[in-house]
Amino acid sequence: MSADVPLSHLAVIVSRVTDTDELYVRESVTTLTVMLAVPVQGADVAVHDSARAREFVQNMTTVDEILEQLPDCAMDALQPTSRSDLDYVRVGCWGRVTHVVDPGLASDFLHMPLTEEISNQETRFPGARVVGEVYLDMGGEYAESVVSLPGVPRLVVRQWDDGTEATGDLRQVLDALGMVPADVDEDFDPETLEDWDPEPVLRRALDGFDADPWTEPSRNWSVFRVRRPDGFVSGMEEVWFGR
Question: Is the overall model pTM greater than 0.90, yes or no?
Fold first, then answer.
C-alpha cells in the first residue's frame, strides 16, 4: 500500500464475503462534510474530537455498528486494491466541521446513499451546511456533488461521460453563497451545466474550510471498522465491483 495517496482518493468498503475480488473502481472520492451553524462550545478548530467522531459515525445511515476504533492518526491514507483494504470509515471533527470519508456513500443511478445521508444530517443538524461529493472511475466516470444550505433547495449535480443533470436551483445556491457563474469556472454555463466544477462551490459553502490533510498535515482523524446495515453490502458490491 502506498502512503502518498491523497485522502480524498480513498475508497474503503466493508464486505462480509471472501477477499478474492479486485476492485472494479479504479479511483474514488466519497466524502461528506457538515458545518454547524454555531461553534461547538469548547471545541478547537485545530484539535480533532474523537468522541464526537465516534458519535457521528454511530448515527450514519451507512453504518449499522462500529466494530473497532483504531488509534487516531494523521495523513494515514492508503489506496485500496482489494477487499482486505476495504473495512473502514474515516472521520475528522475540528471545531464546528465534521468531515467523513466513507465508501458507503458511493452512488450511481440505482443507489443514492449520499443524498440519503445528507437528508439524515439535515434532520440531525437543522441550520447546518452539508456538502457531499462522489467520484468513481470505473473506466467510465461518474460524479455527484450535493450542496445543502439552510433555506435553499438542495442542489444535486450528477455527471457522467455523456452528460450532466441537476436537481434543485443552482442560481439560488450561487446567490446564497455570493457567487456568480464565473466563480465556478470562467466557461461555466448554468443553463447547460457545461464546465461544471463543484470544488469552488463546495469550498465556499464551507466558508473556505479545507479538510484535505495534505494541506493541514497536523490534523488527526479517527478511523473506524464498521458493519453495514442489512442489505447494504449488496448495493455496495454493485457499485464497487460492477455487479
Answer: no
Q: Is residue 1 part of a domain?
A: no
- Whether residue 79 is contained in a domain is answered as yes
Q: Tell me the pLDDT tens digit for each residue of 149-175.
A: 999 999 999 998 888 999 999 999 999
Name the DSSP letter for residue 74.
Answer: S
Residue 2 lies in a domain: no
Phi-psi region of 160 (alpha: psi -120 to 50; beta: other; left: phi over 0): beta
**Considering its fold, how many domains does the chain have in total?**
1
The band of 68, judged by pLDDT with boundaries at 50, 70 and 90, is: very high
Residue type, 46: A
Among the ranges given (23-27, 154-158, 211-215, 226-230), the one the predictor scored with the smallest mean pLDDT = 211-215
Cα Rg of the chain, angstroms: 17
Mean pLDDT calculated for residue range 185-213: 87
∠ CA 133-137-140 to the nearest 5 degrees? 120
Amino acid code (one letter) for 23: L
- Integer angstrom CA distances of residue 51 from 55, 91, 118, 222: 6, 11, 21, 9
Angle at 185 between CA 179 and CA 190, to 5 degrees: 70
- Does some domain include residue 225? yes
The answer to whether 79 and 10 have CB atoms below 8 angstroms apart is: yes
Q: Name the strands in the sheet holding 27-35, side by side, starting at the edge strand that comes first in the sequence.
A: 65-73, 221-227, 88-94, 97-101, 27-35, 129-138, 140-148, 155-160, 163-167
Domain of 80 in residue numbering reads as 7-241
